[in-house]
Amino acid sequence: MPIIQYREAIRQALAEELTRDANVVVLGEEVAQFNGAYKVTEGLLERFGPKRIVDTPISEAGFIGLGIGASMLGIRPVIELMFWSFYSVAFDQILNNAANIRYMSGGQIHCPIVIRGPANGGTNVGATHSHTPENVLASHPGVKVVVPCTPYDAKGLLKSAIRDNDPVMYLENTMLYGDRGEVPADDYLIPLGKADVKREGKDLTIVTYGRAAIQSLAAAAVLQQERGISAEVLDLRSIRPLDIDAVLASVRKTHRVLVVEEQRPFCGVGAQLAYMIQSEAFDELDGPVARLTTVDAPSIYSPPVEVEQLPNPQRILKAAVEAMA
Amino acid sequence: MTKKPSAATEGHADPPAAKLGFAGAPVNAMLSAEQKIGLYRMMLRIRRFEERSLRAYQAKKIGGFLHLYIGQEAVAVGCCSLMGKDDHVITAYRDHGHAIAVGMELNPLMAELYGKVTGCSKGKGGSMHFFDPSRNYWGGHGIVGGQVPLGVGLAYGLKYKGLKGACMTFMGDGAVNQGAVHEAYNLAALWELPVVFVIENNGYSMGTSQARSSAGELSRRAEAYGMPWGECNGHDLYEVRAFMAPFLERARDTCRPALVEIDTYRYRGHSVADPDNTYRAKAEIEEYRRNKDPIQVFQNELIAEGVLDEARAEKIDAEVRGEADLSADFAEASPFPIAADLQKDVYWEADNPGERRSGGRLFFN
Q1: Count of alpha carbons within 13 Å of A171, Cβ hemisphere only?
Q2: In CATH terms, is domain A196-324 a member of 2.60.40.3780?
Q3: Which chain A residues have a beta carbon less than 8 Å from that of B183?
Q4: Cβ B150–A68 below 8 Å, yes or no?
Q5: Which of A104, A139, A189, A240 would you mutate first to test chain B, the one with the most B CBs within 10 A?
Q6: pLDDT 10s digits, A268-297
Q7: Which of A15, A316, B130, B159 could form an SS bridge with A219, CB 3.0 to 4.6 Å?
Q8: CATH architecture, range B22-227+237-276+289-295+321-331
């Protein structure tokens, strides 16, 4: 199987869906002539032309709103946010319009739009460019939220997202763009709302997603090697819909849970997970649900300190050991 | 009314047919007598529907906001009467007039106001959120200016599909200072999209007059985006049609946007729940009602033309009053949605379980 980068996997998904469906159009800042701020869309303009690959002005509320309007007529826009952090200037379009129009119209309209781009810290760009809004997005019924962490997942989930008839928020990670992995060159789909056991284990379930899943895998290897603790790493992949059954199945096996996420603790995805786990599998738990998040402050610039603010294998290891105590 | 001086159209063409009288404009001259009466009836239908809805509101049958369009009827009817098969409409929260003008029936509209399951949005949208995609009517939007990028997107969709149509994107004078509106102007002009932005200028953004909220002239801002623009009076249905028709044709034919401002007036408060005595004088309302009421103006015109007489006008009025009353009866007799309906119409996939591809939980209680 070909081994390609995460960014290439996303590009493959875009190219395959652009080829399959003439109504798919890619819009965003620097996606065409510049080849993408992170080179995700490199070469697509040359291949598909300016009608399908469209450079936008810096105008997120404008072009996201435009994409939503076009989607009501059956266009399937895939809109790149250079950083998901910029969603805040388009909040009304995404979370009042895309999320609510179906409901407010009594089901007469649907908005098949995908908004994608990186949502992560760790690149020393400070607080304004390091938001992780998956919790904010997922708290709005009407939208779906996907956070892939491997090239294989990135391609299969994006293709499903583009074919989905609901608005899908697809959160990537700049720290993963260069990661390599096996990705089939042909057409395959990964359904939204299906978690993936990235590592099997029997002593502790680490529920995680995004880059935190990659770091949890590194921590799990050390846990096994140095402590003899067998950690299962469950990658949610989708936040909404949420594969809570997979979470509960793992909890029933290990009886201990650590949630690892690149979110602030207050009302983060892990808060919802902890509530659901205690509510639906209380008797299975041998200890309280543990949680490791980004340290609760705006994202710091200072490079070595930002590493300590975010989840990292050392912090995860420590949290896992505490969860086993 | 604290508005800019009227007819500030320097550097721009006079409204078409101004010298001939608007009735003689081609788009009006082509109307049959029955079509003219149809337009009259449509305006009256909006008026009587809204008066009936106001009574229902006062009787506490309707909750929330009720933004009445009374006084502005010639704008929606004039503009929407020009729609072709591939023309589309989107507007803000003062949306009853446009909904009726595109042809929506009164029963589902009144039922929506009553919050009933027979409403056009099954009781889920309310007054500000009427939709009918089958009539190219895309709402009905509650956030000031928020619908304007959507209208540009509809125009983008038309152009993408190679359809020869235009999207009339309505907004109030209070919307013009929102950032999203300017972003939409820029995209429409930059990408040459077939949209006609229509500012329905009723002089007040809620209780703040234009003079206290907007610098410069509203429609003239189009010049900064290289868009043609124009301004007309909104109380004369013939003038609205004569003025709008070339802008729509140009948008359809050349795939280019324009920005027009139609001066109008609302008789009621911003919403009926708002006190209407802090920012304008009763005399101002009375003056407009006496001299510029769009229904009276058009009735006078049609009587002068010999198309209509008092007896027929009274008969039409009785008919549309009856229709409005029946819509209230229909709404009253209809059931409310039930709690089990709350989580329907949220996700397409949840509403089409046979075609669902995703797994996992979509709802969390």
Answers
A1: 31
A2: no
A3: 59, 61-63, 65
A4: yes
A5: A104
A6: 999 999 999 999 999 999 999 999 999 999
A7: A316
A8: 3-Layer(aba) Sandwich (3.40)
